[in-house]
User: Fold these one by one.
Assistant:
Number 1:
Amino acid sequence: MCRWLAYSGSPLRLHALLFETQNSLINQSLACQRASVATNGDGFGVGWYGTQKKPGLYRDIRPAWNDDNLRSLAEQIESPLFFAHVRASTGTATTRQNCHPFRHDNWLFMHNGRIGGYDKVRRCLEFQIPEALYNERIGTTDSEIIFMLLIGNGLLSDPADAYRKTIADIETAMQAQGVTEPLRLTACATDGERLYAIRYSSDQAAPTLFYAQGQQVQVENGTCAFTEGAGSVLVLSEPLDRSDACWNEVPEGYFLTAIGDRVTLQPVVPAEPISAVA
Amino acid sequence: MCRWLAYSGSPLRLHALLFETQNSLINQSLACQRASVATNGDGFGVGWYGTQKKPGLYRDIRPAWNDDNLRSLAEQIESPLFFAHVRASTGTATTRQNCHPFRHDNWLFMHNGRIGGYDKVRRCLEFQIPEALYNERIGTTDSEIIFMLLIGNGLLSDPADAYRKTIADIETAMQAQGVTEPLRLTACATDGERLYAIRYSSDQAAPTLFYAQGQQVQVENGTCAFTEGAGSVLVLSEPLDRSDACWNEVPEGYFLTAIGDRVTLQPVVPAEPISAVA
Amino acid sequence: MCRWLAYSGSPLRLHALLFETQNSLINQSLACQRASVATNGDGFGVGWYGTQKKPGLYRDIRPAWNDDNLRSLAEQIESPLFFAHVRASTGTATTRQNCHPFRHDNWLFMHNGRIGGYDKVRRCLEFQIPEALYNERIGTTDSEIIFMLLIGNGLLSDPADAYRKTIADIETAMQAQGVTEPLRLTACATDGERLYAIRYSSDQAAPTLFYAQGQQVQVENGTCAFTEGAGSVLVLSEPLDRSDACWNEVPEGYFLTAIGDRVTLQPVVPAEPISAVA
Amino acid sequence: MCRWLAYSGSPLRLHALLFETQNSLINQSLACQRASVATNGDGFGVGWYGTQKKPGLYRDIRPAWNDDNLRSLAEQIESPLFFAHVRASTGTATTRQNCHPFRHDNWLFMHNGRIGGYDKVRRCLEFQIPEALYNERIGTTDSEIIFMLLIGNGLLSDPADAYRKTIADIETAMQAQGVTEPLRLTACATDGERLYAIRYSSDQAAPTLFYAQGQQVQVENGTCAFTEGAGSVLVLSEPLDRSDACWNEVPEGYFLTAIGDRVTLQPVVPAEPISAVA
């Protein structure tokens, strides 16, 4: 499994959330608290929005904890919306192309989870990638496929529906191949303005998902605090500190939208994909 | 384009052919003599046969000229059959998985050339990869696809025929997509016993291919010499020294088989693939 | 040898100077025009000033021409003062720590050249690094030593004098060890406000150095143009295009200072270091 | 801290000891059992003796657990004497040059531990490296310095005495700088024939050291077994399986010599270095 965080709000230096808290993402790369695999050392990535629509992307195959470049970028870059991800491979190679986040035009996507029986359904799912997107398939992960299916299923116009359809596509393919392992999907996409996250699994064991919000986030003495108000939101795999003050857990089976000052949750309820297929 | 060499014969330290000649493969990585692109710095790889049927593989993304590990392995490893390749990317990413040679069971394959209009035919050709092989597709190059199509077309039983069919498959796909750029293919495959090489293009401009043979190869003062007799053969992109004594050029459109002490050449003559399809 | 450029002036996206000109630094990494070694593929680095006094640093061991991260950072980062360097090793290892620029507090330094007989003088020169700086020695190049000697010799208060003293220190050490190879030094340092460059050698064969200036630099159709006026300056190893319009060559043996709108040149004239020692 | 193993005996494929046991070195890279830091993901290395006096060396900066090259080399290489090491940095950079083992002519050396207050004593200790060896200093670790001091102190003729003198040198330097952190040193050197290991610390908290011996080592179902007799020996940081059958712990403060069929232990008893200095 992996760990990730997405931030949207007042421009913030990446360093604060990546390096400065007790359970910072960098610390999670070495030893995270709430996942089956503790070490997330198979590469990492950050994506951020600057003055252009196209976000920047820095991904590398080293463990995040020993990358001086990441530290320097995190010190320099201030951004109103950024993604960061530390990877624990579920089988595919450690290449930059397999590191999250993935980018398509002004969109970013990152993921923690896995498609059960990926070896059995990979070919079928790759063939469902829209032809126009096919050459953007530059890696080999299940996560990159999910992103492309999402785009094909209307991510740009109706993210909640795109998640539903993509889950249905994947579960249909898994069922067709007799896969019994689960689909688990705790992911986040953004168009540079809103965050669209999901916590879903086919076996009620989706990786954790949390959020916190307020007017501004402040990191002091390793602890994260949000000032009263609205405008900033953090969506992430697990809390960044040991305090319970600000963290809200997203329940299994829910879809989250964060639009600057408002977080909304709605059940995923996939449109009965399996019976629809049989 | 890339540069490569394949050796079969008396066990030989890789170092002799990779590092010790005037125009050694390592020197070619920095500045080769007979190709449109002089620098082959987008990764490299060696494959070699030891005491097992499965060959060893060492590939990395650095330029070959500054890799201490390659130097050390080349000093240590003696092998009766090995491949070495320095890469100049034609567009796909610099990852280990995109470096040659590629391996399938006891087989190795490497390539210099390109499928014209790869962006247009990639999807179609990936779908022609045999299903049983699909999960061995761990990179994104056209070269890896060619290897998989070769296997699907009978490489293991009739290499010459597999090359012919694969060329037909690729040219058919290119024609279907209206690709006007050429297919160029100077490649080599081996099962650990024989070398099966080809120099082919759809526009009479295939990358060069040479061979040399004799009882034993000797490298002295930067020059390669083969002693009288049979038993060792070298098939490669370009001569390793400035002497013309031992190097034979393979003509465009020819298929080469090297079986220890005998090199045979036969025309490729693709079986009129295009009209057969129309 | 290496290639580098330093820019100071109106905030500019790195991409313009690194990627968009005919003879851009990235093109120079693959094949530069005016150096003894054409390929600069042994790593690269960029250093830039943002909103803090401490500059950012991104260095990696890949050739610059195939690094997607560099491309993305260059697209995102706008800076009023930045350094970029592509490296051709003169013997030391390809590690990030050996890539330029080097950083000390708010200072950056980069270099093209070499200390002749470095193997013979390295130990002596390392012992001349000020003790307080010694743990900042994290690589093994002669260039990093030069930077530390410069700091020890007063770079922060009188750069021209620091260059003179450092040249004297190095030439003294070379003479003491009987080194006959030359010292060659085409380098640039900055405190984030001014550029302090030098073109010097002990054998009248220093690597080239150029500059161009104007109100603003504009890159169009692969060509660099400076608008009339003052405010922006570019100091670099070789011109970025084939036009001769804007490039001025710095003569051998000169020290250059660029202070926003003014470039001044003065002879280095080392303070007769050699006779002083004998 | 790090983890390592040294094998000497009947030629053995590296794969058996690196990959096949319950607590294999590769598993230890992800999560070792008996160290303060569980993850050893800051690079790795193997050194092995083949048909030449000079050993082979393969080191890289990735975590050992996700390196396909290491897996392939371990499958191919059979050797009568090899070292393997997984690294957890104690502060110095993750470069190949900082990965163990280190090589000098026909010697290899690797280490787990640290020189307390290294920042304070590094300069002093580097100046004690014999001048003739100085240019072999290509990294920045304390471990590489220890190896060079050992050579300077007679490692090639009297290893036990060289360890003693080197410990004295280091402790003298630490004392001179007022360092209060301990020296900890669990290391192994070899000339290609004998293993010279040590478990020492200045605070009675040296990293663990174990050995096992017999006629041959056999790995089955994840467990290591030694057949009755002599000829093979394994010296290592921690047992490779959960069985207690074959593993002997080396007590703190002991020096171990393994000469094919015989393991001897003797107390280190440094020659009262500290009082000698005061």
Number 2:
Amino acid sequence: MAKTTETSKMARSAAQERKDKITIKAIEGVANEVYSSIMKGHKPDLTMPVRSLSNVSYDQKRGYFEIGRSKKVRTLTVNTVKTFAQTLKMMALSKDLIASNDFATKRDAYYQSKNWQEAKFDEQPESDTVMDDIEAMFSVHDVSREELRFVPQEHGGAVAGELTVIDRDLESGKKIVIDCTQFGSGAYSVPSWVEHLEFKTSAKFILAIETHGMFQRLQSHNFWKKSQCILVSMGGVPTRACRRFVRRLSDENKLPVYAFTDCDPYGISNIYRTLKVGSGNAAHINRFFSVPNASYLGLMPQDIIDWDLKDATHKLTEIDVKRASDALKNDPFFLEHKPWAKAIQQLVKMGVRAEQQALSKHGLNFVMDEYLPAKLKKPELFLP
Amino acid sequence: MAKTTETSKMARSAAQERKDKITIKAIEGVANEVYSSIMKGHKPDLTMPVRSLSNVSYDQKRGYFEIGRSKKVRTLTVNTVKTFAQTLKMMALSKDLIASNDFATKRDAYYQSKNWQEAKFDEQPESDTVMDDIEAMFSVHDVSREELRFVPQEHGGAVAGELTVIDRDLESGKKIVIDCTQFGSGAYSVPSWVEHLEFKTSAKFILAIETHGMFQRLQSHNFWKKSQCILVSMGGVPTRACRRFVRRLSDENKLPVYAFTDCDPYGISNIYRTLKVGSGNAAHINRFFSVPNASYLGLMPQDIIDWDLKDATHKLTEIDVKRASDALKNDPFFLEHKPWAKAIQQLVKMGVRAEQQALSKHGLNFVMDEYLPAKLKKPELFLP
């Protein structure tokens, strides 16, 4: 890694340099507390939020599922010594990664540990748990896992439209300018981590699309040009990198995000809800990954009636119905938003679901020529 | 679709125009036979290859799993009238798509059928079967489903490196030049269909990578520049579009393709074997989608020993072992290539599997600084 380290100082933007300093400071803060406890002859401990559904709340104003105040304290004892050491080694790895301007996936970190002698992980789930703990611990300091340079395996979706992304060569620090209007039928594949990216855009909104098939249609026919927007292909439930990309893009440019998914409990409660408020069992990270600016364009259950799609629907499966009733009973998001509860009830009552491509019934480009333009005239009608 | 049609003639490259003419000719050929049968007072029929494993062969020289000579004939009768009509309607849709320079996914085609009165499909599996039949029927005329403008839902993977892709604006026909060296940490997201793309490259080989995590490392650290290559992220078993992209790129530029996957039966027999020779149950399309120029760089079972990865392995699961013994017993590819059978036997005997990121044990960039350069010095040792 030595070669990489030498050039690392030049290779960062000023914004990245600032972020890295904050992250290093947070790591050193935790480490120093451990150190001074030991120096005083006390048992050192590490404090982190409890990661469980019982420690989650949802406040509309804040806009995402939030971690509660319950904390767990891991004190150094004979029983915790290995995990304690692993946690500190993992923090040290993070510090090294920042120093060398590099990054590691969960897998990479697990394999790196094979050199940690007694502190090595035997199985990857152990290593994942320690990483999740660290993520929760540092989320309190407003530092995300990606800022610690632990990055996901998955890419962040495909993007096209009125957007310029500014990246930097990791080794030379040279600026790289990516014009997302210049992809033809292809697209910009968002990297696994996006903290270092900068954006320039004249778009009026972001359209986050469930299926790549629909994205491909809108992209190939330059829908982004006609409606001055940025198209994002989520490809099902959006990955961490995809959600963070949309969040940063939306926040920094004050852009509304319109979600366009299938009209079924999966599209609504898994894909859209995850995009907007995050997920319950990862509440400590939703502050980074939720997209509070998101609202729901369609397909709405009412669209099936209004747009004459009845004969292009499928019956709801048992799983669909279970998913819907779970959302209505237990999901703070749907409990909070009455219009959403109503829409889901309507869907269950109709007993059918519709895919976004059902609009093809009226012609392949109907979605672009009729449906979306009509919808986009009244964004105030989109569900929250 | 009228708007689109007007500009369609300008919007094609000369190569695309030629291909489209061939496709239209093939469609009209089949349609004319049906027509003239009817005019002669005969029952018309449609002939297509039998799509089943029993009708598959593998010839090393040809380089892919090939469909055999068994044919099925669908004659117009009272029982077949609906499927017969649907097949012709689907062919007509293909012709319309070419005329308007547009495309449709399986889903789009299914929903379009809702306007075919008596010939409409009730369920999508029916529509998929007819599309598969058409695909098999036209594969005999060397026309692929993508050339019929029926395109997959999925994108074609992520690409970066020494490559320029030339695309065209679907509506204006304007050339779009995409420089795949200019993506920073991101990448070029390959579209769902790639027949219309043109390539310029000075690369010496294509590196097809199983995981996006490994791709991200090689891409961010400009491995493609150091080794003058093109990086492709397959993200597991490569999609149709990904395989076709690699195939065309490799054929047209005479580039070898080196596959880099996990060392386990899935990486070898599912990912690599599918990339190289295609799959048994879609043998009628392998002539378009297989990549005969592919060879296998690693991880090899022997790499686990040679590169001291033993403590970074996982035990083979029951599924792994079953997959391996299936490959050894039934897969024509592994039956044909003895060195492959040997390698798989060695893996089963060792009882472990290794992920490509296991190399991180020796340092995050060891793969780039040591492993790949050493391997690339002796491509003659790669398994076929």
Number 3:
Amino acid sequence: MEGHFESTAAVRDIVIGLSDGLTVPFALAAGLSGALASSRIVVLAGLAEIAAGSIAMGLGGYLAARGDSEHYAAEKRREELEIVERTRDEEEEIYEIFQKYSVPRSNAAPVLEALKQNPSAWVDFMMRFELGLEEPEPNRAHRSALTIALAYVAGGMIPLAPYMLVVDIKQALLLSIIITLMALAIFGAIKGKIVGTGWLRNAIQTVLIGGVAAGAAYLLARLLEPHA
Amino acid sequence: MEGHFESTAAVRDIVIGLSDGLTVPFALAAGLSGALASSRIVVLAGLAEIAAGSIAMGLGGYLAARGDSEHYAAEKRREELEIVERTRDEEEEIYEIFQKYSVPRSNAAPVLEALKQNPSAWVDFMMRFELGLEEPEPNRAHRSALTIALAYVAGGMIPLAPYMLVVDIKQALLLSIIITLMALAIFGAIKGKIVGTGWLRNAIQTVLIGGVAAGAAYLLARLLEPHA
């Protein structure tokens, strides 16, 4: 169960990093290739975007995860105090939770009795059922940040590789489109399998996002540099 | 309550779009300005990145929100079937939920009795307390997508504006750094106020992310184009 949860969190981080990493550098490079004569600046801009995007997403993910941990700890301390200092109010909150599900006070009373026997279980119950908070995995922040950033870099290198390896920029663009749309389709299909929302549908969706983003960036760059 | 929830969701979308929109185009433009002699390509790359990033985040947000809605609806249908077809198993699951909080079967039984009187409340209870799912707001997907994308564009135009208005690229870079770090500080402070994690600390964090991302992109671009 623990292993299952951890792998799920890691998979989610990889998905977050890969989906933006495959899409944005791809679209940026495709856009610039429509307006520039040489691959050199496409590669430069693509790598700078990968550096910026991976750090923004990784550090952002780190701080978000750390914020979640701190928020959970602070709310837990507050609940721990409240069941001691404002016992009656907290009891009333239990009744209110059950009232939302049409459970009368008299039927909820035995649950409250049991929770009062075990203050730490009571606090956990309030965290989950009053506040809707799940305890974050410890040390998740570091791992999450690194996983997202590395997935972004890995994803971003796929669309950029052709511009590094193929001299002719039009050929590089074509190759980049082919391998990136394939990578997006495979990535979307696997994501759909894991999440259970259908592999074909997810594959089409991720390809669509990448295609629309690249198309928009390309058109914009052509409009701004019509003589390229 | 309803108004409060909706504004929270919109604020969250604006925060998502603004934080990446302020950071990534800023870092990309700063990075390229270290390696290129003219602002023209910095602006071109920045605008292409804004197009790509806003579409990737907006469409991505749209599909994620729609996926959440569909996932909720599918799980709800499954629970509705299960309380009819596998009533005993579902009853057992109620006991298991309470067991996690050291509530004995005998104390949980009256709650189960009450839920059985009201099947739709029973389903809602399972959705929230077995599966941990909250009902997504209807039509959230479209609004979410548009809000995230527009916030990304608005955020991205701040760091790019100096490169459009100031001819000298070094001056444009300096101006972009000043106004973007100020915007990041203000944005972080407001975010910290809203989330309640401290305005100063959040202001420092968002400035740090933007600064590190821009610094890394700048160094990378200088390494790749040392003679610029």
Number 4:
Amino acid sequence: MTSEPIELHAVGNVRSPYKEKGDAPRQGRFSDTISEIVVDERYRPALYQIEGQKHLWVLCWFDRADRAVLRAIPPGTVSEKGVFAIRSPDRPNPVSLCLVDLLEVKDSVLKVRGLDAFDGTPVIDIKVYSAEIDGVRQG
Amino acid sequence: MTSEPIELHAVGNVRSPYKEKGDAPRQGRFSDTISEIVVDERYRPALYQIEGQKHLWVLCWFDRADRAVLRAIPPGTVSEKGVFAIRSPDRPNPVSLCLVDLLEVKDSVLKVRGLDAFDGTPVIDIKVYSAEIDGVRQG
């Protein structure tokens, strides 16, 4: 049933003021920190026309996360939950999901606000945010 | 600068009425189709307490996508954009991002509404949706 290993390649890396644990906010969304996403030159065509976008999803590979953790107690709470029911960076495939504001594009570097990733973190994907697709339906 | 290959393992698979191209909607969000996520037994502890959640992000590995595509013309438009500026399934690391409504949890099977994935698609991560983290800030 479960398939073979899946191989990803970083498309870039984060340049961030967060160097080690304790520096990064619990969720980037709650901070105004500016980071940069340095996209690898070979993927530069994938940035074409991105400067017209205001909000992006950035998917990173949290290489410092603990992949063996299946349950955890979220910060500010007292009861344990499965990692699929929370936002802990520790999970079997530590792919992070972070909504950022795009401030500037220069060559293959994106300047963004709100990214919660350590300096050097591999970026695996970038997608435009869509209020229609990414919002909870009413009713 | 770019790091070594990253290895992921599917945590489950999609059971869906979409068997081939043409079956799936452009974005699952626009349909009311019911799918199931069959989580591998070894990851079942990661579902603990998930039944209390209404909305989940499901990250899939779109194994039928074309990873060489860097620019594309989004459906309903006429101008080409880089794949990081759109939501095309074709991209260097075809990790899909889909917001679903959680309808039911039975053992290690989640019944969900709104998933745009073919039958058998590997699921790589599940995260709870948070209006606070995942919404665009006003102002």
